[in-house]
Amino acid sequence: MVLLGFMLNYALRVNLTIAIVEMIYDEADNHTTVAHLTNLTDHVNVTQHPEHIEQTRYHWDTKQKNHLLGCFFWGYVLTELPGGRLAEIIGARRVFGYSTLLASVLTLLSPAAATAGFGWIVALRVALGFLLGVTWPAILPMASKWIPPMDRSKFMSNMMASSLGAAITMPVCGFLIAHFGWESAFYFTGIIGVMWSVAWFAVVYDSPAQHPRISDAERNYLLKALPQDNNTKGHMPAPWRAMLRSAPVWAIIITHGASVFGYFTVVNQLPSYIESILHFNIKHNGLLSSLPYLGKYLCALASSVLADSLRRSGRLSTTAARKLFTGFAVGLPGVMMIVQAFLGHDRVWSIAIFTLALTINGAVTAGYLGNGLDIAPNFSGTIFGMANTLSSFGGWLSTFMVGELTHENNTYEQWQIVFYILAGTYLLGALCFVTLGSGDLQPWNSPAPPAPRQEEEPLNEHPHLPQQKV
After folding, report:
1. What is the rounded CA–CA span in Å between residue 313 and residue 446?
2. What is the model's pLDDT at position 43?
């Protein structure tokens, strides 16, 4: 359910990145016949494709398009840290489940919001980001109760199923848009989301002790292998000062911000780059845009199995494994972006480099991505919420950066600047984790309990005499 949930998580995001190519009216498109509608305020056109599909299009310029793609992160950044802490307190089942359900309903309303006006679709995307912001940090507290330590890299690869979701969503939405119009992309992903939410609440529980249908053997194994909270004692207060002074925590935060900055730049901009620079049509666009995400998931799965095997056999310590795989997954894509700056004008080389860079980046599941569970499982959701808050600013910044660089000058030379910035960001993130990262449990994960209050000794005025018992 977590794997399917993260597939859906990105399907609800990237549906816009493929649909927006067809949502915007292109005056250079000679295959459309235009009927102007004067009663709408957004300069809307109804266009007809060669396949005889009549659909609404909007006169949004490049800056507005990137504004729409980036506004998701305005809401996303607000709920990362609260989402992780909330899951530690009330459980991931409710946090992850309700946020995905409401996000799916909003997705179904997206075409109506676009028709109502540009401001409405922007507001809806902000609300969508607000809801989905809690999902990533919410899963780690659940993993600390369900997943034994030596299996956690493999479990984290389920979070990379978001890439698999994008890999499937893009070609499927490309097909639907080509045959039924861009609105179908939102209806398809929204309906799937509602169906998944119903199944989530039926089969998922926060801990083995709460699950009504788990076998006794599995429950006893997990309760023995993993420490479980005793809810009668209340929830542990977060050691904010210790966390903010911890070098391993900052290594996770900075490296995640750098990695996700590069990832979101590709997620949001690859379809537009393929269309405007490489000149592929919408059908090829959806298929080609999906290749990097498919590769990323497969690499995440393979690297996670390898990392857990190396750790279990004792050939690599947890610290060495996390640093090795992070250096590979975040550093090498930086080198690939330098290559992209020189060869990205060629169709074959460009697609190959994008695919290879994002494929390699999938190995973060064996690196820093699950590192919060190593250093502080009790506060893994809070740590990931802090990291994702920074990365959310990076997600917005990436769309703003590309919009400013390519506005009124959407050329390959301007995209070269984008690639150099990505290269520097990736390399900085890799260097930071290799220098500061750790796989050791931190002492502040289990704050020392307060000393028990000792009862006052009754006063004995004659110490040489034995104390009388009452």
Report:
1. 27
2. 45
pLDDT digits (tens, 9 = 90+) for 170-209: 788 888 888 888 899 999 999 999 999 999 999 999 989 8
Using H for helix, E for strand and C for coil, what is the string for 19-86?
A: HHHHHECCCCCCCCCEEECCCCCCCEEEEECCCCCEEEEECCCHHHHHHHHHCHHHHHHHHHHHHHHH
- Say how many C-beta atoms besides its own lie within 10 A of residue 341's C-beta: 20
Note whether 329 and 362 are within 8 A (CB): yes
Domains and CATH numbers, the chain: 1-25+56-210 (1.20.1250.20), 240-442 (1.20.1250.20)
Residue 81 main-chain phi, psi, to 5 deg:
-65, -45
CA distance 94 to 124: 22
Q: What is the mean pLDDT of the chain?
A: 82
The Cβ-side half-sphere exposure at 16, using a 13 Å CA radius, reads 29
| Cβ–Cβ under 8 Å, residues 235 and 89 | yes
pLDDT at 191: 96
Confidence at 121, pLDDT banded by 50, 70, 90: very high
Let me know the angle formed at the C-alpha of 167 by 413 and 124, rounded to the nearest 5 degrees: 80
Among 45-49, 196-200, 269-273, 391-395, name the one with the lowest average pLDDT: 45-49
- Looking up tokens 């939410």, which residue turns up? 197
Rounded Cα distance between 112 and 101, Å, is: 18
pLDDT digits (tens, 9 = 90+) for 391-410: 877 767 887 888 788 877 77
Q: H/E/C letters for each residue in 381-446?
A: HHHHHHHHHHHHHHHHHHHHHHHHHHCCCCCHHHHHHHHHHHHHHHHHHHHHHHHHCCCCCCHHHC
Please indicate, yes or no, whether the overall pTM of this predicted structure exceeds 0.85. Answer: no
Mention every residue, 6+ apart, whose C-beta is less than 8 A from residue 148: 222, 225, 226
